[in-house]
Design goal:
4 copies of one chain form a homotetramer. Chain A is globular, with a radius of gyration of 19 Å. By secondary structure, chain A is mainly alpha-helical. The first copy, chain A, is built from 10 helices and no strands. In chain A, α6 runs parallel beside α8.
């Protein structure tokens, strides 16, 4: 009988603004894809690290967008503190194009690789404060809790892999990128099997 | 008596985010239009391939936007898989400015022309998965079905023309661009006559 | 008793997409404001034509946004043709940053000045088709009609001034810019007195 | 019993357009973060003034966004004058990336530092007209009034600090940046203690 609880207009504008910023971040990276200076397939193939970096970063920003999206949908509160936590998160995610561009120029080098993974890791760290400010009380429901716990474990796993990747950058930069790719697969691959591995059996438990 | 079924808030945010990304893609291409270095009409005229490429790409992205728009309006489902299908589609469409920029620099060359048409074709291919995930059950209604079939045939025709254009790029790059222009005309030209050609007689059947 | 007639969701998304494109157009021009190469006031002052061009173009795009805004609010129809008319209009307005950048580099030169005014004029011409497709039947009400007529006369006046400015560019480029400034003043200055000059006595007639 | 008074659709579109512009402004500054030309930590560290300028400007634009957000939420009026006041404000805020870029290139120099602080100050000045046009009558309620007065004092304090910073730029540029940082802290730091210092005891009075 009651209408579904809609996000307040304040959360609505927060979402719209965040979507705008994320849409720009995800798209301006394509500006780094400078067309090759010779009209040959070899010149194009030579750009593969830049392409790979663009593809990986697009996936990572996409993952963050999907999660941010879910978070604000469930948010119970809105206000100045949530605004600032969100702005800090947007700031940290806005550094990804910088990390991507440097990595794309020096794909096999330790420092640019480590910085690239650091820029991918940072939004995960600032997300912790954002999550706290959003105070999703609905997560206390047993059903949501399992999903929430799976998400938390995935997030911890991602953080660990990014951190490992930063260290690996000084030994084997290619392994760092493999870490990033694994994180992307964990989030993007169709959930059921991977979710079960992360402790979720939500379909059974919630039925 | 019942209010019209509105897209869920989730689809709403998907639309808003997609619109943001498409708006940026369609507009950043204008950044490739570097002003000529001499203040003369000859210097301006010298830019015509860049202008033509910008105009054509604007039209193609516009066509994709109009179709994407229709698709999400009719979408029955929303969720993580639709999110990812949509992100993959956005990724493929985000490569168009890159293809356009390279083509604009080397307008008569085989490889840049072939790549340009490939970047125009890709969003058409990723659109297939997006369409499947959106699961528009309304398309089973006889009336919508005819419109839907016309759209499908137009899409197949576009794919064939792009593919032909990619091959033609190695023989006659100008013919590739003609293929692109024909695709644009098929979608933009006032519908009735072209739609009938694609098998639609919707006005008769639906009345 | 009845709820106010709301724009259809289709017009809503058209508005949102257009706003996104216009927001990008109005803002990317600031990217042309390259910081001076010397940290001196003289170097900054040297940029005044670029600043002036940015300011003028911002005002012109702003005027177009305000009018576009009003048009879609009153639109009676939505559909494929309106979509295309709107995309053509967005295409023409997207050329303004290009015209602005070239003018900013060669402020006293005939051809760049003429092109700049042409890019400012073009969205006015494509707006005619857009207006026709939007079919604002509400404009037939006597009250709205007067406002509409004032708008039409202002639009014709602007077109005439831009056209005159394009010709003047070959004689006195500074006079072209004066034409542009006059157009901006006509639209931005507080309405009553200017509106009366354009034939509006709406406050009297509508009461 | 009554539904809460919602902003008119006109204010809604004004908000959406402004959010778009602010999202672009806050994000394009990251394009100034050019990746270092050598893959070393030293080369990265060498960029610290550019990073600091980006971080500070992100915070300032964020503060303006939060305040603009609050203002339009409480706005009683909408119309042509509000549109123009808002466009002028957007124009002034759009100059921040320019100021940031010049400061980032010449961090210790008087003129770029003074210009940077001027671009930060300008949106504060144009905000005065915007605030007048929005005519927030709700601010006359005693409860809102205290919050409003705190905001006004913070705004005056910010203006004074920016103005002082502009003068200090010619003596000690580092002190100018300290002024900017203090302004950021005043707005971002958790409110209660700072608000009390600015004359607010709202929690007591409103209970």
């Amino acid at each position: 009988m009651e209408p579904p609880v809609r996000p307040t207009s304040e959360t609505g504008r927060l979402e719209a603004f965040s979507d705008g910023v994320i849409a720009i971040i995800i798209t301006i990276m394509v500006l780094e894809l400078r067309p090759p200076e010779h009209p040959s397939l070899a010149a194009l193939a030579h750009l593969w690290p830049v392409f790979m970096a663009y593809g990986l970063s697009f996936a990572q920003v996409g993952i963050y967008w999907v999660n941010h999206h879910r978070l604000l949908d469930r948010a119970d509160s809105s206000g100045t503190r949530l605004n600032w936590a969100n702005l800090l998160w947007l700031f940290s995610i806005s550094l990804i194009p910088f990390g991507t561009a440097w990595y794309g120029e020096f794909p096999g080098q330790a420092i640019p690789t480590a910085l690239y993974l650091t820029t991918l890791l940072l939004p995960g760290l600032t997300y912790i404060w954002l999550e706290k400010e959003a105070m999703c009380s609905g997560d206390r429901d047993p059903e949501n809790r399992i999903e929430h716990d799976v998400q938390q474990r995935k997030a911890m796993f991602s953080t660990a892999f990014y951190a490992a990747g930063i260290i690996l950058a000084f030994v084997a930069p290619a392994a760092s990128i493999a870490c990033t790719a694994i994180v992307a697969i964990v989030w993007i691959a169709p959930g059921s099997r991977i979710d079960r591995w992360f402790g979720g059996g939500s379909t059974k438990l919630s039925s």
